[in-house]
Amino acid sequence: MNSKYLKQTILLLFGLVLLTTFGCNKKLDTAVASAEASVNMWQSYDDARNGLVAIYGLSRAALADNNGHWLYGDLRKGDFVATSSGNYLDAIIKNELNKGFPQIKKLTNWRRFYAAIDACNTFIENAQRCKADLRYSDLNCTVDIAQAHMLRSFLYFYMVRIWGDVPLITKATKNGETIQVARSPQDQVMDYCIRELRQYKDSLPTEYGGDDKSKLNYDGNYYGQAWSNWGNAFWGYYQCLGLLAQMYAWTGDYAAVLTTTTEIFNNAAAARTGLISYTNSRGYLAGRNSIFYSNGIKGNLCYQMISFPYNMSNRESGPSGVGHIESLTLASPYMVRAKPDIYVPRDTIARWFHYFGDVRHPYQSEFGNYEEIYFSNYFGNIPVFTKFKNIETGSSNFPIFGSCIPIFRWEDNLLLMAEANYALGDMRAAFDRLNDVREPRNSPGFFYGRISAVRPGFTLQPTEASMEGGILYNIFRERRVELAGEGSWWYDQVRYNRLARNNAEFNKLLDEGGIYWPIDQDIIDKNPLIEQNSYWKR
Amino acid sequence: MQLKKLFIHCGRRWIVFLLLGITLNGMAQVDTLSDAEKQDSLLKVAAAQQFNQELKRSNHPGLSDSSSLLTLINLAGVKKTPFISVQQYLKGNAAGLHVSEESGEPGAEQFMYIRGLNMPVFNKQDLIAQQPAIFVNGVPLVQENALTYNIQRYDFNRIGSGTNILSTIDVNNIEKIEVLKSPSDLAVLGPIASNGAIWITTKSAQSGFRKINVDSYFGVLSRPSVYTVNGQYEADFRNRYYNKYATLDQIQNKPLYVANTLDPNFYGASNWGDVYYKSKPVHYLGLGLLGGMDRANFMFNISKTKSQNFDATSLNRYNIVFGINMLPAKWLTISGNVNATRMDRDRNHSLRDRFAETRFVPDLANPLAPNVNAYNNFLKKYTGAVDKNINNSFFGSFGVRAKFGELELNTKLAADYEESLRDVFYPKALMDNNNFGSVYTGFNQRFSVLNNIKYALSFNNNAQKIRLEAGQSYISDFIKYDYVVAYNTPNDFIKIKETYLSGFFYNNRNDIFGYPFTDKTKTNISSLYGRIGYSFKSLLDLDFVGRYDGASSFSEYARWLFTPVASARFNLHELVKADPISMLVLKASWGQFGNLLADDRYKIGPQYRVDLGYGDEPTLGSYAGLAGISQPYTYGWVNEYYNWPYAVRTNIGTEIGLFKNRYMIGIDYYNNKSKNLIAPTNVAAENGFSYKYVQGMEVQNSGLNLTFNAGVVTGQKDFGWNLYGNFSWNKNKLLKLPYGLTSLIYGNRKLEIGKPVDAFWVYENKGIFNTAADIPRGRLNTDGTYDPLTFSGMINFSPGDANWADNNQDGTIDDKDKVLKGNALPVYTGGLGSNLRYKRFSLDFQFYVALGQKLLNRSTANKLDFVNTENSKDISYVKEITFWQKTFDYNDYPLYNPWSSTIPYRIDQDLFLENAGYVKLRTLSLGYDLSNVSYLAKSKFNKALLYVTASNLFTISSFSGGDPEQVDYMGYYDGRSLPIPKSFIIGIKLDF
C-alpha cells in the first residue's frame, strides 16, 4: 500500500468522524418509551379513553390498596374476627385505630384518593380538548366528563365516610404548584357531591355500548366495545342514582333516598340489573363465578350494579390477591393456607340467621347437609367465609382472585328503600322491601308471609325470630347478612345507630367523632392546615 | 520442529491462527529459537522496544500523568486470591474508594463509592446512579441501569440474572488498575465519569519472545462457626415475654412451632447447618499467550473460574480475551481487543428472594424447621426447579493512533454488550401447589466513538511547551428488557404456555396466568472538549480543559452543558535538590462536572404514564381491560425541565518521594460539592402526588486521601519488603435543599442541612418504663394539669414500654423526636498491604479497615419484635433457615412488652444502632518460586510460583451479630445474606 495516500486517507477519516459527530444534536433526541409528555396528552380519542380509564383505575387503586375497602368498611365493630389476636386487623376490628401498626398508618393516609380526584379534575378540565380528534364525539365527551364528575363525587363521599371533614378540591393541580387546603365541613362536601350528581346524572347513559334508555340515546359501541364486554366497568345513569341514594342515606335525607331508590326500583330493565332469585341465590352470591366476578355480567344483567371490577379476561388481577376480599377471608381448601386472616365465628353466624332454611345458611336444608355457600369448615375452629371465592380457573387453588370491589346492588337498593320507608314512617312499605330481599333467600319475612314469585304456591311465614328486634333492626340484620363482605357493614352500623341511638357505646362514637379514622401524621406534617380528628387527639 | 514451524507461522499470521482455532497450540511449549533466527530477532529488538514503549504510553488521560505512581492499585496480592469482581480487587486497595459487599454469594451485586455519597440514597436507583464509570483500555463500559426496578415490588435483587457485570473481568488479564477521583484525572472523561472512574488497562501484547502463562488454583471454603438453635431456644426467649406481659388470649395464640414441644423438627437437633454450610471447592484455570513480531503482536487469554459459596450457590465464568497491536507504518498504530465472558450462576434458596420474584407469598404460619431432615425435605421441593442465570458479555475496542511529529491523532471505536438471561421455574411443591415460571431477557449495550487530536509546541529549547488537545466523543447506550412471569401451568412438566386447536383456531390454555413486561431506554451523550496545557521545563504544568457535553437525558432546552477544569502541578523537587527528597510535588485542580440523570423520565417534563397499581400490585396497569394513563401520582410530580446537576470539585495535594522514590506518600485534600441535585420534596397529599421532584439540593463531601508505598527493603537479592497502604477520611454534609427547606423526609430517611445524607433517623432510647411512676408527664394544659405522655399523640404509654426521649418536649413521642445519628457509610477507610520476599519465598497480606459507620440491626429487631413479625405478610420478615442461629444475647436488651401498641422493639431507634466499624485481614498469601528448582529449571520457567492463600481470615469488630460489612445500601443489617467466606486456596502460576 502506498503510505502517502494512507496518511491522507487516515486524516480524511478523522475529519469525517468529527464532522458526523458534530451533527449529533439530533441524535440526542431519544424517545421515552414509558411516558408521554403532558403537552401531547388530551389531543385524541385515545387520550380521552386512556384518561377516562385512568380515573376508574386510580379510584380502584385507592380502594384496593391494603384491602382498604374492607378494612374501612367491614371490619370496625363488625362480625369478622382476626385470626391472630393483637395484629392490625384485630386493632381495626376493635376500633383501636391509634395503634402504631404500619398497616393502619397506611390506611389513615388519603393520598391515593386525592390522586384519583386530581385525575378526575384533570379529566374534567381537559377532555374537551380531545374533540380535536373527530372520532371523539360531543356525546362521547359529555358522557365521559359526567363520569368524571360522578367518580369525583363518589370519592369525596367515600372519604367523608372515613374521615368526616375533608379538603374539597375541585381544580386540577397546575404545573406542580402545590396547594394547601383546609378540611371542609362534611355537610358542605356532601352537598357538593349531591349537587354534582344531580347535575350530571342526565348526562349519563343507562348502559354503555348497548341500548341506552336515557334521553341521550347513546346507543352503539362505547370505545369500540359492546355492553357485553364492559359490564359494570363504566358507571351510568342508574349507577349515579345508586350513589345518590347512598349519599342521601348518609346525610339522613330519607325522603330523597326514597325517591331515588324508587326510581331505580321501577326501572330494573333499563338499569340492566335485578334481584337475585331464589334459584340463583347460591351460585350468584357465593359461587366460584358469582355476580362479583370480573365484569359482573350474568346472562344479560349485571346484578352488581356499582363496582370496581377487575377484567379477568385480561388477567387484570395479581398474585398478591390484595384488592380482593378473598385475600383476607379465604383459606384451605380454597387456597393453601391453614387459616384466613379474618373469619366470622360460629356464634356470630348463629346470630345472623333466624331460619336454617336460609339459602345462605351453612346448613343447607335442601341438601340436608352443610354446604360451602357463605361458609365452609363450619364446624372447625375457624369457619372460612367463602361467600367470595372467585378463584380464577376453578380447578386449582391458585390465589388469583376475580372479585370486584362491590359498591351497590339491587338488594342494597331494596334495603335502602326499606330504611327510608321506616324513617318516613311507611312501615308497610318497609316490610315489603325487606321481604323482597328475604323471600328469594328462603328467609322468613317480616310481619307477613310473602307468596313466592319463583316457587308457585310457596309461602314462608314470618317467625318470632325473623321479627325479633323490630323492623329497623331486621332491615340492618338483612344488610349484615346479604351484604356481608361487601364493605358496607360499618357504614350501615353508623346509619343504624344514628336512627336507633340505643347503644351507649356507639352513641359516644357518633357524638365524639369516633366513627372517623385518624389522619396520618404525614398528611398533617405536609399540610399544616389539616387538623387531626378530635376523637383520636389525646 | 514441525510444531515449531507451525507455531512461528501462526505467530505471523495470528488471524489464521485464531480462525483455525488451534489455540491449544499455545500449550505446546516451543523451545528456544535456532541461532539464525535468534540473530534475526536480535536485530528486531530495537524496533520492538520502541514499539513496546509506544504501547505502554497509553495510560489514563489525567492532566498531569506522573501521579499514576500513587493511583496504581497494588495487584500483587490480589492476583493470588479467589476474588472474581473488580469491586473485590479494589476493596481496601485504593484511597477514597469504599466497596460494599452485602452478600458473599458469588456474582451478587456490589457497589462502589468514590469519595463518599454524591447524593442521598433513597432507593436502589439512587445507588446505581452514583456508581463510578469503568474504563477498560480507555473505553467506557456500559453501566448497570435501574430500569427494571420500576416494575419490582421489592428491590432486594434486580430481576434477571442479577449478576454483577464487573465479574466479567478476570484479574489475571489486568495489567493495572487506577482509581481516578481528582478533577485533573477526570477532566477529559466527561460526565459519564462524574462519580469517579476505575481505569483498567489489560495486559497488552508485547513484541518479543512468546510468553505463555498458566494460572490455576483450587481451594475450599471453611464453614463459619454458627451457634444453631432450635424451638427450645425460641421458646425460652419468648417465654420471658409471655410470662411477664401476655394475656390469656395472647398465650393461646402462641405459634404452634414454638408451643408444640413434641415436634421433632423444631425441638429436635438443630443441624440444618450441615447442609446449608456444606463446604464447596473453588477453582480457576487460566492460560495466557503473548507473542508477536516487531510490527504486529497479540495477547490471548482464556480462563475458567468457579466460585462457590454456601447454600449451593456458585458462579461459573468462562472468559476469553484477545488483543492485537499492529504498526503498519512508523507513524501508525492500530490496536484492538476483545473480552468475551459467559457467566452462569446458581442462586441461593432464600425464601425472601424467591417470594420477591414470584410476588406470591405462601402461607407462612410455620417457618422452615431447624432439623436437617426437615431442611432436606424443603430442598427436595426444588427437584424439577429451573433457575438458570446466564450473563453474556462482550466488549471490544478498536483504536488507531497516527503520529506525525508533534501531531497526534487518536480514534477509538468500541462496543459493549452485556446480556442478562434468567429462566425460572418453581414446581408446585414450592408454591403451595401452584407453580411459577419466568423468563427474563435483557441487555445493556453501548457503542462509543472517541477521537482526539493533540499537538505540542515547544519554545526556548524545549524549556517551555504548549500542549493543545481537542477531543470529541459520542456514546450511545441502549437498554432493553423483556420479562414474563407466569403462574399455574397445568403441571410441573409443562413449563410453557400451551396453545391448542379449537375448531379452526388456535387458542391459549386459559389456566396459565402470564404477565409480560417490557421496557427500554436510549441514552446518547455527545461531547467535545479542548485542552490547553503549558509546561515550564519540568517544573510547572498548567492545564485548562473546557468541555461541552450534550446528553439525551435532558430536555432539549437544557441539553448542553459547558464545564471547565483547571489544574496546576508544581514539581518543587526540581528547584530544591535536597538529598533524600527525590520528589516533592504540589498540585491543585478544580473543576466542574456534569452529572447525568439515570432516569429518562425527567427529560420530558410533566407527563402521563401508567400508574393504576397500588402497594401490593404496583404493576397493575389496566382497568376494564384498557390501559389507563395518568399523571405519575405514585412516583411524584416531574417539573417542566431540569438542568444538569453538576459537581464542583477541588483537590489540593502533595506527592512526596524519598530516597529515589523508595518511600512515597501522596496526600490529597478534596472538597466536592454536588449541586443542583434533584430532591423529592413533600407536597400536600391533597394534590395527589407523593412527592415533587425539585432541583436545588447540594451535598458536600470533603476529606483526605492518603496513599503510601514504602520499599522498606529493596535492591537486595534475597530479601525484599514492600509495604503499601491507604487511608481516607470523608465527611459528608447536606448543604442545601430546594425551596430553602431545612429538612426533608423520604420514607424512613430524613435529610437535614448540615447533617450527613446517610445518617440514621431514630428515636433515642432511654430504657424502659418499669412502673407507671416512671412515665413522665405529657403536655401541660392551660388549667395546670398535665396530659399523659403519648406516642404519636394517640397512645398512652404504659409500663413495659420503651422510654424514648421527648426531644422537643411536647409531651408526645413522634417523628419530631427522632434524631439523625451516625453514618451508614464509613467515615474512615483504609488498607494496609505488604509484599515480602525472602529468597524464593514470598509473603503477602492485606488488611482492610472501615470505621466510623453504624448499622441498624434489623436482624435482632425482627427477632425481638416477634409479635408483629410473626404473622405479617411483609416478606422482609420471612424467616429463612438462618433464623435458627443465635446472633445476639437477648439478655442484653430491655424486656419490653412486645404486644404494646407503641411497638417498643421498632427498628427506628438507637437501641438497634450499633457500631459497624471493622478491621479485616482480607488476604494472607505464602508463595514459593519453583522456577530455579533444579528439576524444573530444565523446563525454562521464567516463573513457577506455588502459593497458598487464605482470604477473609478474621474480622475485628465490636459488632457481635455477624459480619458488619454485610449491610444493605441503607445501612440495615438483615443477617440474611451469605457470609463472605473464609477460604483457602492453593495455586500455581507458571510463566514460560
- Count of the domains of chain B: 2
Low-confidence stretches of chain B: 1-33
Count of helical stretches of chain A: 22
| Low-confidence residue ranges of chain A | none
DSSP helical segment count of chain B: 17
Euclidean distance between termini CA atoms of chain B? 18 Å
Compute the number of strand runs of chain A.
13
Q: How many strands, what sense, and barrel or not for the largest sheet of chain B?
A: 22 strands, antiparallel, barrel
Average pLDDT of chain A, to the nearest integer?
Answer: 90
Mind sketching the topology for me?
The complex is a heterodimer of chains A (538) and B (992).
Chain A: H1 3-22, E1 36-37, H2 45-64, H3 68-73, E2 81-82, H4 88-93, H5 102-107, H6 111-126, H7 138-163, H8 186-200, H9 227-230, H10 237-251, H11 254-265, H12 268-271, H13 281-286, E3 297-298, E4 301-302, E5 306-308, H14 326-329, E6 342-343, H15 346-352, E7 363-364, E8 369-370, E9 375-376, E10 384-385, E11 405-408, H16 410-424, H17 427-438, E12 450-451, E13 459-460, H18 464-467, H19 470-482, H20 489-500, H21 504-512, H22 521-526
Antiparallel strand pairs in A: 2-6, 3-4, 5-11, 7-8, 9-10, 12-13
Chain B: H1 2-12, H2 14-19, H3 35-56, H4 68-71, H5 86-90, E1 97-100, E2 111-114, H6 124-129, E3 133-136, E4 139-140, E5 174-180, H7 183-186, E6 197-202, E7 208-222, H8 231-245, H9 248-252, H10 256-259, H11 264-267, H12 273-276, E8 281-292, E9 296-309, E10 313-329, E11 332-346, H13 351-358, H14 372-380, E12 386-404, E13 407-426, E14 436-459, E15 464-487, E16 499-502, E17 505-508, E18 513-536, E19 540-551, E20 560-571, E21 581-594, E22 607-608, E23 622-623, E24 626-627, E25 637-638, E26 646-658, E27 663-682, E28 691-713, E29 719-736, E30 743-746, E31 749-752, E32 760-762, E33 765-768, E34 777-780, E35 786-788, E36 790-791, E37 795-796, E38 802-804, E39 812-813, E40 819-821, E41 828-838, E42 841-851, E43 854-857, H15 858-864, H16 866-870, E44 913-915, E45 918-929, H17 934-937, E46 943-957, E47 972-973, E48 982-991
Parallel strand pairs in B: 3-6, 25-28, 36-39, 43-47
Antiparallel strand pairs in B: 1-2, 3-4, 5-6, 7-8, 7-48, 8-9, 9-10, 10-11, 11-12, 12-13, 13-14, 14-15, 15-18, 16-17, 18-19, 19-20, 20-21, 21-26, 23-24, 26-27, 27-28, 28-29, 29-41, 30-31, 32-40, 33-38, 34-35, 36-37, 41-42, 42-45, 43-44, 45-46, 46-48
